[in-house]
């Protein structure tokens, strides 16, 4: 009886979640390709890439809240047949994404003083600014593509998102090979070549998503791009109020990892490079849970739009169970094959490779520790976003990551003298607290009936 009840939810979760997982992994693979290929180029360049992409991602996290916020809004609007709300929410999310990308661009164009103030070595800060002065122009296409991803996924068309992202991966790798190392007669540009390759790929992906969204017969009734320039101030305010807390939540979480990058840079360049590799591997597995979190947002948003409490409960149980199984698989892989995983990012001919391999493999044990709690905290966020609850989760995230996680990381690494291991234990603590608080909020709200009151048509 139980299997019969959950079977439709399991099929729907996989149908939505697996393409979203694939698209997130393919998108992350672009960053992995940059890390691997710049790692082959040089250790200082790799350290600069780690800190520069961390800087980029903090701004990306802050701006991505608008695109993420509309996923649950669109799913609920479609469930109740509100075509106008689908268009209004998506369009204003695109407006906000465009405005944010333009607003923060100067921070990347003149990032060297910021990187120096964060305690990075001058050579790392110089190379980091070289990267960001090009990569900064990729923020606009990335944020717009994210909003279109939400739009298409909420219409249960995640497969095209996966396809477009996959096409971008070989393009990025090829351009990296040409521009980082100076192949096929191109200039040898190092980290600048990696930035050019990423921006070119991001622009192509955004244009492909725009073309598909305009063509898709199912989406034509929403008239997304018709009179796109017309403002809708009340809807923009609503998306802003929903999206800003999501962006700040992402900054709080991402900032925990960026803060660990900064502190690892205080310990040493080699430690920072090894830390970047271990964190990159963990980020790839995190994409599994992020895709399932997106599926949770859509499924729960659909239930909210219909006011269907049993459906919401079963959909939530299903996505939690799937994510837990995936997390356990990741734990096993991290514990059994740490040196193999780290070695994928290193050139055996480099003299620093043995030390980086030893450092990176030792950190993989700690990466395995937080797989379960990292999975549960992002699923908790996805469930809460589906019911359009974003402000309190922002506060819970800030407390978990910065009031608890970051001080513990600093204390264990520098006061207790545990070094890199202490930093990673701090990450485990922060993520564990977040998982407990976020899941508690969702299920308490569900028990009170807060999430299943059908939203009125707008």
UniProtKB/TrEMBL annotation:
CC per GO annotation: plasma membrane
Keywords for the protein's UniProt record, in alphabetical order: Antiport, Cell membrane, Ion transport, Membrane, Transmembrane, Transmembrane helix, Transport
GO molecular function: antiporter activity; xenobiotic transmembrane transporter activity
Domain of life: Bacteria
Major subcellular site: membrane
Example GO BP: monoatomic ion transport
InterPro entries recorded: MATE_fam, MATE_MdtK, MdtK-like
Membrane topology, from the record: Multi-pass membrane protein
TM segment ranges: 55-80, 92-111, 131-153, 160-182, 194-218, 239-257, 277-298, 319-341, 361-383, 395-415, 421-439
Subcellular location(s) per record: Cell inner membrane
PANTHER family tied to this protein: FMN_FAD EXPORTER YEEO-RELATED, MULTIDRUG RESISTANCE PROTEIN NORM-RELATED
NCBIfam families named among the record's database cross-references: matE
Name the record gives this protein: Multidrug-efflux transporter
